[in-house]
UniProtKB/TrEMBL annotation, chains A, B:
Protein species of origin: Mucilaginibacter lappiensis
Keywords: Calcium, Hydrolase, Metal-binding, Signal
Cross-referenced Pfam families: Sulfatase
InterPro entries assigned: Alkaline_phosphatase_core_sf, Sulfatase, Sulfatase_N
Name assigned to this protein: Arylsulfatase A-like enzyme
Length: 514, 514
């Protein structure tokens, strides 16, 4: 392991371009520790760290000094993507597959065999894998795959999961992080959000009032003022003691329940947001953001104090866009991720573009910015490459692409690659922008959105129009057709779930416009 | 690690007395794995393995072939003891202290600051540590101590807790096994029994119906026919894969929730006990016993299949006597541990004498029987000695005494040692035999019971009168006085909690009769 001092020196040299990246890599180094710091439902603008070309009003609203610090020490990704809702993203990360391919296209219920599709007049639900991901074959309505933590564990990594799991429904193996390759599990289970963030409410564990969302494993904080984010952070750091002492490389899946609803005030930060003029809901949301950021800072401080910061990769990510339904959010609906359109549940940028930062000591340059687009399934091959795991066997075919080349060179560009989003489900009763029954494809700066209800399409140039206001499909029929064909062929190739037309009783097909 | 074959050969040689134990010990051997298989509320006679000088009707009722198998491969203890109820026993085991010394004399509530003493006309509750054991100082109403798993972990053991913990109340650090030195925790928390044993009832995790006893961490079995005992066994074996693969010595605290109430039928075994003529409650109880025994067998099979049985110590134990309240048990009250008097909650033998078996490959002789009395706090120094941990530092002064000398020599005898039981609490509304406000002391075959309500005493000779029917205190005033003085001095020395006399407002003292 490199000393923190040596790393700082290399860092400084890198900034001034005095030595090459390749040279830095040649330093002797043990296998790196890896932390994925995954926030739930955090939007691209829910931070004081600007991810766009300019600082926005939202950047001024929020306080995330530790994200700023991490970005100063590492690489900021301005075009990082996830799926529009949580389970598809989380299972894409664990399986390395696109949601259209693994077929877990919507969030999974904590109860088995309960598809979560809202009722619809036009469509019957698609045949999706509504019980989630499974590390064992033969489980109905699941996708059988090899989760990457299993491969890291087999390679000698000490694997820890803390916080929200939500990879599968209760009653199936994937509900249990211990079955997914994790050696330690704290508070991860089948639920997608906490019943309560408050220790004074036992995080929901109140006799007779507990729901499937009551957070397990935190009894020691019951009755205390400890906000859930803080409790999970303390438990995570406690779990890290063991591998650090044994000099065993670790993988920590630090998956915060924040900032998912229910919106609750983290009292440590509440007053200042009220004083700043935010309404109560938005002030609560801001406190949840800042509490999450404090967790990041606590973790960075801990790594430094334990002298492992120089050999620990931190990847900051969110699992989908910020919630833009109002209520529960304050302000007009679908404005909460401005300049992006819409939010969670949408294939518009507000639903899928994520704040992502990677610090890989000795590899990523301090304060570097990568504009290459990447997507959540890329985490699978990337994490294994970071850990030096090669020639691994998986049940599934991996769709993700390692972004290690980007980490080594922020200017790395691949404008030929296609990214896909596929949401053949009904998330909320009333359709919103890009919400319910939509797919999308991106190549270079071009993005096409396809609406399954009426086969309508929009083509956007994201470089010039990040807000997706100007539909260029009529002006660019060739590009439109090319992207639509690519989308159609890929979905067909993956045998992607499609909603069922009530009139025909058959899954719809993407045909119109071709 | 010795090969299983080599171990078998040594075992056979030992049986025929061809080589000395000392010689067997000289074989090169890595640090042993250790499993404590702790059953909850299991009585001394709740098994087909006789622990008395004769097989009883209860021995004929129950089917525990794997306990028989373990006894054939190891050493049976006929005079093993615990405290009369669970938390005192469990915290004695973890701290190495007698209950009168650690002051956790009664079971702890899953809620903080809720003494569990029943109301009484004569006494106010004693000042006991009703929030349980704490690995951190300064927590109100707890005993601050170093738990032995912390020492095992520090020595390089991979420490796993599965099942019931119940060392402390929610809202205190001791509620969380991760704070007690365990690296893995599955289903251990602040509760003392499961809400349900049934996977079909989600072990209690039903929205709006969950109590603090809903069992955490088993989401994958929700909605299935998996009985709790079976689910915990599978999870435990899964957790063992990791240290076995890494050749790291492990400590497994396999703490079954069975056979505590609620009595529920394990359907795999139910019909045969009904057919045998048992009433429904007793038939259910018998299925819970047999399911627990199957777990033991599955574990032994697993160790063999993984080729670590030759280097794995198994210690079978229960935490207090079998429940003898009727209902919920069938039959007349306080007969369920016959020939022993009373049951759980009592300082009579039925409440404290436990089925204990130890298999230490290469050390314990097959089918050996030890009559030396031992007690639950002895586990602390014994387990550390087994693991080769020496010169360890603890916050607390250890009362327990290693029984390794007994394991090396079944004939080992110490009739001078004193054992103590102290229950200054009110467990149930109506006093029973040895139940509520009683202390006891044993030396050699002599046992004195002291009743705090009226300072009355009974003296028994357990060798001749295991049923504690004949009070010899009048016939043996000297022995009676000697034991009473010893008890009084020890309780005083330990500053043991005592009930408060409502008339004087002061804790009572043991004075009468002296």
């Amino acid at each position: 392991m490199k000393s923190p001092l040596l790393h700082s020196v290399i860092g400084v040299l890198l900034v001034f371009g005095q030595i090459s990246i390749a040279k830095a890599q040649k330093q002797p180094q043990s296998r790196p520790n890896i932390i994925v710091f995954l926030v739930d439902d955090m939007g691209w603008q829910d931070t004081s760290l600007p991810f766009w070309t300019e600082a926005t009003a939202l950047n001024k609203r929020y306080h995330t000094p530790n994200m700023e610090r991490l970005a100063r020490e590492g690489m900021k990704f301005t075009n990082a993507y996830a799926a529009p809702v949580c389970t598809p993203s989380r299972t894409s990360m664990l399986s390395g597959m696109n949601a259209a391919h693994h077929g877990i296209t919507n969030w999974t219920s904590p109860q088995r065999n309960e598809p979560t599709d809202a009722k619809d007049d036009q469509f019957l639900p698609a045949e999706w894998n509504y019980n989630g991901l499974s590390p064992q074959p033969g489980i109905a309505h699941t996708l059988y795959a090899t989760p990457f933590p299993e491969l890291l564990k087999a390679a000698g990594y000490y694997t820890i999961h803390v916080g929200k799991a939500h990879w599968a429904s209760a009653g199936t193996p994937g509900a249990n992080p211990y079955n997914m390759g994790f050696m330690i599990n704290i508070s991860g289970h089948a639920a997608g959000h906490p019943q309560s963030y408050l220790g004074t409410e036992n995080y929901g564990n109140i006799p007779g009032k507990a729901t499937p969302q009551a957070v397990p494993d935190l009894e020691e904080y019951f009755g205390t003022e400890t906000f859930l984010t803080e409790a999970l952070t303390r438990e995570a750091l406690k779990a890290l003691d063991e591998p650090i002492r044994n000099k065993q490389p670790f993988y920590l899946n630090m998956a915060h329940y924040a900032v998912h609803v229910p919106l609750m005030a983290d009292k440590r930060f509440y007053q200042k947001y009220l004083d700043a003029g935010l309404d109560m809901q938005e002030a609560k949301y801001a406190t949840m953001i800042e509490g999450m950021d404090k967790s990041l800072g606590d973790m960075m401080d801990y790594l430094k104090a334990r002298h492992v910061d120089g050999n620990t990769i931190i990847i900051f990510m969110s699992d989908n866009g910020g919630l833009s339904l109002a209520p529960p959010r304050g302000g007009p609906a679908h404005t909460q991720n401005a300049p992006l359109k819409a939010g969670k549940g949408s294939v518009n940028e507000g639903g899928i573009r994520e704040p992502m930062i990677v610090k890989w000591p000795g590899i990523t340059r301090p304060s570097s910015i990568a504009n290459q687009y990447v997507i959540i399934e890329d985490f699978f091959p990337t994490l294994l490459e970071m850990a030096g795991v090669k020639n691994y066997q998986t049940i599934q075919k991996i769709d993700g692409k390692s972004f290690v080349p980007v980490l080594k060179n922020a200017a790395y560009t691949d404008n030929q690659r296609f990214l896909f989003w596929h949401y053949p489900n009904k998330w909320i009763p009333k359709d919103g922008p890009g919400i319910n029954y939509c797919s999308a494809i991106r190549q270079g700066d071009w993005k096409l959105i396809y609406h399954m209800r009426d086969s309508s399409m929009q083509l956007y140039n994201l470089k010039n129009d990040i807000a997706e206001n100007e539909d260029l499909s009529k002006k660019n029929p060739e590009k439109t057709t090319q992207l639509l064909k690519q989308l159609r062929d890929q979905l067909k190739n993956w045998n992607a779930p499609m909603p069922v037309d009530k009139k025909t009783g058959k899954p719809i097909a993407i045909t119109s416009g071709l």
